[in-house]
Structures are given as C-alpha cells and as structure tokens.
Write a structure and sequence with these properties.
Blueprint (H helix, E strand, L loop, with lengths): L7 E8 L2 E8 H5 L6 E2 L11 H17 L4 E9 L7 E5 L1 H22 L4
Parallel strand pairs: 1-4, 3-5
Antiparallel strand pairs: 1-2, 4-5
Length: 118
C-alpha cells in the first residue's frame, strides 16, 4: 500500500517574473523548512461537496491499492516575501485543504488508537 505522503503535486511558483514548476510529494510541499502557507482573503471559502470529496477519496484509495504514484494536480503559489519560504496558495486550495484534513485526522487516529507519536 502506498503511503499518502508519496502523492505527487506539481507546484508552480512565481518568484518575480519567472515562474518555476516543481514536482514534489505532498509531504515535501508541507514540510519545506520555514514555510508558511497562506490562503489569501480573496479566495473563495472551502466549498467542496460530498461528490468532490468522494472522488478524491476514491482516487486516493485506488492509488494506494494499486501501489502507484498518483498526480494530485497542480498547485499554484506565489511568494509572500522573497526572503522567506512563505507562499500564498492561489489555486488548489480546495484539494490542499481536503488533504490537510485527511492527514490531520490520520495522525490523530494513529495517536489515539495505535499509540504512534505524531
């Protein structure tokens, strides 16, 4: 079974006038040292419905069962401060919010029921 941490995303980051495209795992995206991820106020609030969440869960389950890499989709960010590693999440926020909830609940389950440290 493939770990959820091995799901691939591609991030498109605009540093100045030159966009960069990076392929990385979801965990690499979240665990970048010093990174803070912001969702700007002008972005729509979380609005995924059951059918969108169920599609994501189904895709995750299939990728895990088939033990294959899965492309999570593009995530568009822009640098908040050129001297920091902080970014505004411009596109992909619904997917990233959903995957964050899944990861958080998975870690809480492990801590509560399996006794693993988070």
């Amino acid at each position: 079974m493939r770990e959820i941490t091995e799901i691939l995303v591609s991030t498109i980051t605009n540093r100045g006038a030159k966009p960069r495209i990076n392929a990385r795992t979801v965990m690499d995206f979240f665990n970048a040292e010093g990174r803070a991820i912001y969702i700007p106020d002008y972005q729509r609030p979380y609005s995924w419905e059951d059918n969108q969440r169920n599609k994501l869960f189904s895709d995750l389950e299939k990728a895990c069962d088939d033990n294959e890499r899965w492309f999570f989709g593009p995530i568009y960010t822009t640098v908040v401060d050129p001297e920091s590693n902080s970014v505004d999440l411009l596109d992909g926020q619904q997917r990233m919010t959903t995957i964050t909830i899944i990861l958080r609940e998975t870690l809480a389950f492990r801590a509560d029921y399996i006794g693993a440290k988070c």
